[in-house]
């Protein structure tokens, strides 16, 4: 076997591009494994996990190249393919007579009408604040897709924007729909009378897809970032978004969707909602509160629509391993929260990297402990890596590890479709799911998507069902189905 680890200084390439480059290198015949990524702590740990010794002093501004090959020829071809792929990603020079590309947000905003323009900031978290301030100064509605932005900067940015009545969506705003146009991760849903304020990305996607399945459309979905309803941020963007939707004559009902919020902030939102002319429904996850499917059903009833349970397909999961635990591997943080809330009613505390109670936090290595659920989209797992809705490789590794773990009893997964997401997520999951089912480990999957999504909802669900998974379009229903498959230990029967 021939292997190499290179550190290239003075090179920055975004994580999605590097994911594509890594796949091209790994596809070379004779290459067993390849990692091409910025040298963040997470990626350095991945390199060490591949058996490489990482030099001291390597940092996130350097490019890490690790290749395991069967021989010198394969290694040489892999490095040639790497250089070729990186060269292709360089921007083409500006042609003679063409206007120069804008180098700053201020320059790009010149001449735009703030009433109809949106600035989308998607830079590394440490740089996002200054770019977002420039957008706010230009009077633009500002969507900050970037994660890993310190909460202190989020509060400062939103308070600054509040002075001029500018809406800041984010940081870590993964999903928005404005006038029917999706931004970030967005499903193709019908237009309609519902306006959504979302302190949740996948929660908003799930709600919109459930409503779309019931024939109900969305006017706008204003994402505000997952921390907006925390005590630290105080709902600054949520309160502004409520005012904007209330002023829109096309919005007949507003829904506020969020992962578990601060009780004090939730009460402030409720009080503001009561003063609006447009009815507001609060879909705030938490103990004793309705799940997202129940909230969608209530929206349908409020608007006079018929409601039927979301579709599901049985697959062939069988019973869980005797005495085994529930293991949830999620790409969506809000979906993971919802699953923990639903499962916790029956199982008690769930260990997680985003625990509902800090006492249930997993150790840094994220080794499973009893009933466990992991959010692979958490900031700590996306530094220098694409979001798992784009690149599910880390989750696939963990799926295979859980298959080999005799304490795993049932697996629970989510698959999120739509623009921006993996064009064929079932292709990467079908094999590992089939392996798990063959090893006696049932798999239950929630697929979040609409019939018009580019991945083809029916094809994705069919592929996963053929692999042996039970597939549901409701995350709450998928969680309850997984719970029903858990099998007690022989001595507990």
TrEMBL record:
GO terms for cellular component: cytosol; succinate-CoA ligase complex (ADP-forming). It comes from the Bacteria. SUPFAM superfamilies: Succinyl-CoA synthetase domains (SSF52210). InterPro entries: SUCC_ACL_C, Succinyl-CoA_synth-like. GO terms for biological process: tricarboxylic acid cycle. Residues 329-482 form the ATP-citrate synthase/succinyl-CoA ligase C-terminal domain. One of its GO terms (molecular function) is succinate-CoA ligase (GDP-forming) activity. This is FdrA family protein.
